[in-house]
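General statements about sequence and structure are easier to judge against a single worked case. Part of our work consisted of pairing the sequence of a single chain with a tokenised description of its backbone. The amino acid sequence and the backbone structure tokens for this protein are reproduced below.

***
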Amino acid sequence: MDRKPYFAVTDITLTSVFCALWVALSLTLGRVSFALTGLPILHDFAVFFTLLLVTWATGKFGTATLVAMVGSAILFLIGIPPLNIITLGFAASAPVFDGLMSLNRHKLTGKPYNLSVAVLSTVVSAYSAGVVIGVFFMNRPFDWVLTVWGGWHIVGGIITLAVTVPVKGALEKANVRRIKGA
């Protein structure tokens, strides 16, 4: 029997490209965010911009989690503290993102339901990343993590959505989806 693999070559290629984007944006925006403000907003942007775009580009369950795991492993091996440790919190939130995006079959369209699922997925995942980072890597009080730190991660997730949706629209107008044959 001729079985088609779940991940096509284009899925693996796109996932690899977004792994590199995860690393590049985390090394630049993540570090700038903490250096200038001490807040995670741009790091959230780096992470969830990448996850939203890989989800849009592939439409497959698992690619967002793969990007987060591989990207975090690369950053961990590069070893720039505290970035190498903090990204593990984002990697832990990626399966949550992937699972929630399953509610709309990993589609990122302009339809209200699909956008609502993308908002829910991003906000819940960003918040969960903030909680994991705050509790396990920052040793902060739980109430502060649940309110202040988790709240700042939600702000980063909302900013990400405000930027990613128009960028995705511009990519669609440029006919970028042709790569996948869609």
Q: What stands out?
A: The mean pLDDT is 92. Residues 142-173 form the longest helix (32 residues). The radius of gyration is 16 Å.
